[in-house]
Amino acid sequence: TSMLFYGSQENSSTFQQLSDLLGLQRREHYGDYLLNYLLVLLGYERDSPQYVLSANRLYVDKSVELEANFASALERFYRAEALKGDFANDGPRTAEEMNAFVSNVTRGNIKTIIAPRDIDELTRLVIINAIYFKGNWFKSFDPKDTRPGTFTLSSGQVATHPKMMNQGGHFWVSDADPELKADVVDIPYENEDYSMLLFIPRDPTDFSLDFLEDKLRHHNGSLFDSLYRRMISRKVNLTMPSFEIESSADISETFIALGVTDVFDQSKSNLFDISTNYKDLHVDYIKHKAHILVNEEGTEASAATAIVVGTRSSSSPIRISANRPFIFMIVDKRYNLALFMGKYVSPGGDKRPSSSQPNQSQDVGEEEEVEQASRSKESQEPKRVNIQFPFRS
């Protein structure tokens, strides 16, 4: 997204829509944003290559000449290459190269993001961003304590989840969080710079995630600061599902719903600062694909797109159970940065073989009810869970 912002002409409506999305009210703020973005990328390369891999790349048709400032920004701030190809005559090979790049960054978890039919003679450039995260829990869940359990769907119906993990211990929590109206628990990874946050609506009869989603989608760094200030260390009996899920979608409608419309309209799009010889560039669609595995050992997550304040402890444990729809977020606490955000709504969204999914047909039907509105019209693969990728490029 910020690459498109950099390529938009200042004072245009395209520029304004993208700056509003990024929370950049004035152009001079953008220099700080780019510098911070670069420092984060360098930090991952230097300190955390075994936990986080992130890469950007731009594929450009051979007919396109990039503006010098745009090409320079790609290298300086995004650490991105700009590779040229013959889209009209060699589209399938170019798509294969893009997919190989994504597969390499995500360690094979995402093998395809672009189909050969996505590249044709009218394609001028493709922006690829990929990220991979793998982390073991600070304290693993004992597989002997994993057992089938109930999971209440958004409809109120009760299904069976084959693998509900259980663990007792001290966690940072904000139970009945006043701002989010949810129980929030921080589950640390072995590298304590990272953790998974679970957001479970406090009202046990409220299975909608709409309020939470709206709060978290529009968050800024201050949300994490205020949330961690409200957290205390408590003894918790925690129950959560083990799951493996995928998301594949054209997320253009998401951007349009957030007010970014001009870049999708050829007559209104102003991406004049990208190319010297093409002044009619516009976005056809934005493809996003994600994969996440959460089990007793830890988390492995991938995505691709075309603060301790209290030490009080409770003597008696509280029970927090993610046995109904919840939101999860993988957080880098050094930067107040959400690497991944998603929601889990149904055991039917798991990639497990159907034989291990009791009540599967009921669960899948429930999930379609929840996710149908944002499903890609072209996707031949059922969308399992909406995994967002806030670390935008």
From TrEMBL:
What spans are recorded as compositionally biased (Basic and acidic residues)?
Answer: 372-384
Domain of life of the native organism: Eukaryota
Q: Which SMART domains match?
A: SERPIN
Region of interest: Disordered: 347-393
GO CC, one annotated term? extracellular space
* Molecular function via GO: serine-type endopeptidase inhibitor activity
Note the Pfam families from the entry: Serpin
**InterPro entries per record:** Serpin_CS, Serpin_dom, Serpin_fam, Serpin_sf, Serpin_sf_1, Serpin_sf_2
Q: Entry's PANTHER family?
A: ACCESSORY GLAND PROTEIN ACP76A-RELATED, SERINE PROTEASE INHIBITOR, SERPIN
Q: What is this protein called?
A: Serpin B8
Q: Tell me the organism.
A: Caligus rogercresseyi
